[in-house]
Amino acid sequence: MIERIDHIGIAVRSIDEARRPYETLGLAVEAIEEVPQEGVRVAFIPCGETAIELLEPMDDSSPIARFLERRGPGVHHLCLRTDDIKSDDARLRAADLHLLRDAPTRGAAGCWVQFVHPKSVGGVLLELSQPDDAESGGHNESKNSE
């Protein structure tokens, strides 16, 4: 079941530069982590019950690098927190929505993630995320802090 908006992903060329406006507003980067399987470095900035996720490409071949090349910096995806990603994955497949992965995989902070193609969600890349431990706070439990 979907519980809430987990985070909003924003593609940036540099986390160090992109974090400054948020910090000026009194928000703080909670954790920075590399996710090599996605070719991305991420920074989580908590904001109430949700977070802002800054996504910086690790190299020119990463999906975020290609996104930046085509569209420039900006909103990349919307992530919804789920408590049962396998059931949600099955429901989306049964509804013939286009999922980007054959099955949920590990993402930042060890969460299980699945992505729904923007063509299936009105032009928005949708991520579903389930913390590995249902008791954890997902990105708030990252082991790699700044």
Short description:
This protein is an alpha+beta fold. Helix content is 20%, strand content 36%. The chain is built from 3 helices and 8 strands.
Number of domains as seen in the coordinates = 1
Low-confidence stretches: 135-146
What is the CATH domain class?
Alpha Beta
Order of helices and strands: EHEEEHEHEEE
The residue-averaged pLDDT reads 91
Oligomer: single chain
- Class based on secondary structure composition and strand pairing: alpha+beta
Task: Please state how the strands of the largest beta sheet are arranged side by side.
Answer: 2-3-4-1-5-8-7-6
- How much helicity do the residues have? 10-25%
Explain what the structure shows.
This protein has 146 residues and is an alpha+beta fold. The protein has one domain: Roll (2,3-Dihydroxybiphenyl 1,2-Dioxygenase, domain 1), CATH 3.10.180.10. The protein has 3 helices and 8 strands, in the order E-H-E-E-E-H-E-H-E-E-E. The protein has an 8-stranded mixed beta sheet with strand order 2-3-4-1-5-8-7-6. The longest helix has 10 residues, at 15-24. It starts with a strand and ends in a 16-residue tail after the last strand. Mean pLDDT is 91; it is low at 135-146.
